[in-house]
Amino acid sequence: MTSQVTQLSRSVAKAVHAAETPEGVGATVRRSIGSQALRNLSPFLMLDHAAISPGSGFPDHPHRGQTTVTYVLEGKMQHEDFLGNSGILEKSDVQWMTAGRGIVHSEMPLFEPDAGEEDVVEGLQLWVDLPKDKKYIEPSYQEKKAEDITTVHPKDGVEITIISGESHGATGFVRPVGGCWYIDIKLQKPGISVFQLIPEGWTAFVYIITGTLQIDNNPTFYAKHHTLVFTSEKGQNGILLSRPDNVEGEQTRVVLIAGEPLDQPVIQYGPFVVTSQEEAMKAVYDYRKGVNGFEKANVWKSKIGSAMKH
Length: 310
Fold this sequence. Notes:
CATH architecture: Sandwich
CATH superfamily: Jelly Rolls
Strand order of the largest sheet: 1-22-19-24-17-14-13
Order of helices and strands: EEEEEEEEEEEEEEEEEEEEEEEEEEHH
Largest sheet: 7 strands, antiparallel
Number of helices: 2
Number of domains: 1
Radius of gyration: 20 Å
Strand content: over 45%
Helix content: under 10%
CATH class: Mainly Beta
């Protein structure tokens, strides 16, 4: 006989609306984590919700010291790096890239030739800090097509896609360096709710992609483009997420992300994330000089970035 786990939900500690900010070339993103309103949320460094139009994108740029998670919501994204890796991410595909000691890559939307200004590629990109002893590992990828990612339906009207972590007896495909769960939750009916277990002591937040969200039956409702950061008190073992029953509109869709906080300094200099000012200056030097992981940085140019229309 199995005992029923008592559900004690976390509550909202902070709510931040993701403000629009320019990024890349001609692109605009909604940024919550990494903005002035939510600068530090270890181990998470940045969360961007991008809607990219023709003629814009993210041409050749470097990374060091973090993992980037790209999740395509609509359309297609193409990528290419200076190690020879390239490919296309389609709707609901995921790319988990560990930059480690250094990588230079390009991320560009892929449109049909007759695409107009109203066409967009939509996606989320999350930056996760690497533990200090993993900052200089070799770069690596984990990539998965939508049809190969585990989806569960714990009740009628609830769909949960598990990119990383655990939910209702199922496990996601990604085995990240350090602890991080990434779960896409769709509440398809008014009044429906679901409880998602979260390891005690972990940092946890949700980002609302569409619809309206209620947490732990609190009377406050949160609209799309809000990031909710949760309390982490003893005994709180998860989060109760609900779609209000008296609010009309599109389905409530959120990503719930959780990770073990890192007890280390965060020094971020643009795309370089290290633990000291000396390391930050060294990252800039290594990139400019093409050494210590950036050997190809000065001679490589991506095909997809070079083909960008200006």
